[in-house]
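[audit] Reproducing an earlier prediction to check determinism. Same input, same settings, fresh worker. If the C-alpha cells differ from the archived copy the diff job will pick it up downstream; this log only records the rerun itself.
[audit] input (345 residues):
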Amino acid sequence: MRFQLWHSLKISMTIIGTMIGAGFASGREIWEFFGSYGDGSSSIILLSTFLTFTSTVVILKISWKYKTQHYSEVLNQVIGARMSRVFDYLVMLFLLTSTLVMVAGSGATFQQWNSSYTLGVLVMVAAVLLILLFDLKGLMSMNSVLIPVMVSVLIFVCLQFLQNSGWFLTTDHPKTTSLPVWPSAITYTAFNTMSLLAVLSTMGRQIRHPAEIWVSGGVSSLCLGMLAFLYNYSLLRVDSLVSQYEIPLFALVRDYSPIWVLSISLVLWMAIYTTAVSNVYGLSHRLSELLPFPPWVIGGTVILLLVPLTRLGFATLVNYLYPLFGVINLFILTMVLLYPIMKEG
C-alpha cells in the first residue's frame, strides 16, 4: 500500500500522547531528569531523543513485521517466550498501577479547581470509556485533536516566558547532584518504555508502508525532544523557584492571569487523560486474548474496578508505585535497543 503522511502523523501524535503524561506537561519530569543537573542538561536531551526514536522504530518494526495485536507478542520477540511470560504480568501490573495514578491525578486536578475529587475521578473514567468504544481509531483521532493543542500551549508558555525574561542564560546554574547527567537520559527514556510498548504493539496491522514507521518515529521524537529542550531551558531561568512549586510549569506562569492558569491546568488534565487512555487501551487488548469479551468491555471493567483504589491519593501512589518499575523499564529498554543487533544483525 502507498505511504500516507497523514497516517504517519496520527501515529506520531499517538506516541506523543502516550509520553506526555502529567509528569512531562507539568515540568516535573523535565526538571527531575534534566534541569536539576544544571546547564549541561540541555545537551543530554539529545541523547534521550535519540533513544526514544530508536526504541519507537524498533517496536513499530516488530509490530509491523509480525502483525502483533498486543505487547506480549512483541515481548516474545524481544526477550524470548520464557522470560516474556514473567514480564507479561509485570507490564500488566505497571499499566494497571499507572492508570490508577492517572485517574487519581484527575481527582487531584478537580480538587485544585475547588471541585470534588470524586467528580474528577468519574469524569476521567467516563472520558476513557468513550474512547475505548472506538478502539484504535478513537485513540488516534483523540490524539490528533488534543496533542496539537497541548504542544502548542506548552510551546507558547515557554516562548512567552523567554520573551519576557530574556532569551539567553546570563549565569551558570550549578548541579544539584555530583552524578553525571547522561544516565538520567537513559532512565527517562526507560521511564516511558512500558507505555510505548503497550500502545505501539497494537499498531502493526495499521501501518500501511514501512516508511510510516520512520516518519512517525522521527516526527514524534523530534517534537518531544524540541519541547523538552525548550521546557528545560525555560525552567533553568527560574531554578531558584522550582522547589516552591509542586508543578514547575506554574513557576513560568506566576504572573499570568487566572484565566491562563486555568487553561494550563486544563492542558495538564488532558495530559493525564491521554496517558490513561493509552495505558487502558494497551491493557485491554492484552486481556482480550485471555477473556471472551471485546477490549472496550474489558477496559471499562478494569477502570471501574480501579475507582475505589484512587482513595489512596495521587501523591502516595506516585511515591510508592513509580520507583517499583524502574529496573523493569530499564531492562526492557535495553533489550529493545539490542534487538536489531541480536536478532537482525
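[audit] rerun output stored. Observation attached for the diff report: The chain has a mean pLDDT of 85.
[audit] end
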